[in-house]
Amino acid sequence: MSAVVHDHGHAHDHHDHHGGYSGLMRWVTTTNHKDIGTMYLWFSFIMFLVGGIMALVIRAELFSPGLQVVDPDFFNQMTTMHGLIMVFGAIMPAFVGFANWQIPMMIGAPDMAFARLNNWSFWLLPFAATLLVLSFFMPGGAPGVGWTLYAPLTVQMGIGMDLTIFAVHILGMSSILGSINIITTILNMRAPGMTLMRMPLFVWTWLITAYLLVAAMPVLAGAVTMTLTDRHFGTSFFNAAGGGDPVLYQHIFWFFGHPEVYIIALPAFGVVSQVIPAFSRKPLFGYASMVYATSAIAILSFIVWAHHMYTVGMPVTGQLFFMYATTLIAVPTGVKVFNWVATMWKGSLTFETPMLFALGFLFLFTLGGFTGLVLSLVPVDIQLHDTYYVVAHFHYVMVAGALFSAFAGVYFWLPKWTGKMYDETLGKIHFWLTLIFFNMIFFVQHFLGLAGMPRRIPDYPLMFETWNKISSIGAFGFGLSQLLLLYIVIKCIRSGEPAPQKPWEGADSLEWTHLPTPAPYHSFETQPVIK
Amino acid sequence: MSLREQNLLLSRKLAVVALGMFGFGFALVPFYNQICAALGIGNLESPAQVVNTQVDHTRTVTIELDSNAHNLPWRFKPLVSHVTVRPGELTTVEYEVINVREAPVTGQAVPSYGPQRAGEYFQKLECFCFQQQTLAPGEVRRMPVTFVVDPRLPKDLNTIAVSYTFFEVAGRGGKS
Asked: ω into residue B151 within 30 of 0, thus cis?
């Protein structure tokens, strides 16, 4: 059990004593946070590739005006599933993978609070992903409703919709159980001497994110359950004829949906808060204000949801309230950006791959934040709602934001996880290709949105052709570049140079200062005392 | 308390929060209805409270009447296609609906207004849209709408289109 502490007197080589099982059963039955973290990360990468292929289908169709590649119904299925798979299958599990690997090591705990629950939280995911993919093979195909699953369209879809609803329930269950585990671990199992205000910021951001998940995810479960009963059990939550209201769905969904985007962003902030100080060889600037700013963002995230709904017919007073609350969130976010910059100020900087991705995050996430600020303004959003400007905005914050941060974390921690160094030259090439192709895809989409191109359409007027062509070419380049990451990781695991105990001079959290590299299979079975 | 007991205690509290938030999602349904009612938004069900209307003799407003039946085996039309009224003047128009199906059918009419902002000035004292309507097989029914156009109607608005769409209420099959 994770709570039992015994003193081995020597470090275990991470190849033996894997709970008694070998081969596939080791992975099926493991309760070890490192194994589970590895599984989350590999699962998320596979889902990233699956969701990525769907994006390529979308961009292939949008390469030219007219309908060339797929029929409109299937195009809608692609946009829907691309969104669901990327959000719930790729980006969220990736950061849970980081949480599993890093949190126990960073707080000096031997494992997560509920090690067996942890195993179950992971294994729910491939099951849910299978349901999602299975929906393509049902009569009617996968739902073509957009990842936001708006009523009343969802009430009219075929059985693929029901599979998707069950998948969402299971994904939510996994997140909620994982979050309960994370909160309990962080609050109860820190090493003696590690007070809350001495924890690495990555742990803080996950603590706050886990609370957001526990509060918000059940609301999504409620919304899709209501959709299910409207579909099959005669209720009329979202049916005006029966006394309900489709706009009610939007309120319930976005009450979850807005905290959800901070659930995606906050762990990304946490990774960057580890990487930037390490490569600046300087402590994070303004630790306490970073904690308060993250908490402020989390609390505010519950009162801004209707900025996704400015055009539903809301009275002006309502629009104004949500507009002011949304612009308010820019303040603590700005605090964090300034603190990262201040961390670098007069630091001793080097630009290995993790730092390159963290800097890419810093600049491009801030750009995405600015376009979010633009969209928060009611008179502007009336024009830009459901255009490609919105698509550009959220891809800047979720791809150049969260995904770049995940890449930074992978390069940063790979030596600790594997004991080997990745190929730095290839890593840099991966960074530059990803950066250039990302901007090629999404920067031009701002222009498309401003020019009036709606989102979720398979065909468009000729005037939008040029930017769409550039965007599509960028998409294929971006997708191919991610295969390079796969090659880099596999090459590192199999034949990377052995890593020194502390490959990053400026890294100073417990996993770097108190543990060998690679980290042993069981670490901190005796908790260190933090002076 | 041992670590194991502390962990279980905290996890139970968090599980309660999660369940509570699930319930909160459902609680949003009556919250939403009550907030909309309190703010007077999208009020389908209650008659307007109209008092002391002075008829404005300086202008007339044309009310255009439209009808639709959505996926409903009913023939539905207004008896007249338009009526000219004065703001503040009490007027009644009638719609006729015929159930051509061989079974009882329950429907709900939902109004909408053109332009949309005219809706708040079109005050209905009596309307068949306030309740669900159940028609027997083959039944023909004439249903009134009694309304007053609010004298505060903006001067640039001289025509209001009132459109009713009847939807079948699923699962009712004739029961009200």
From this structure: no
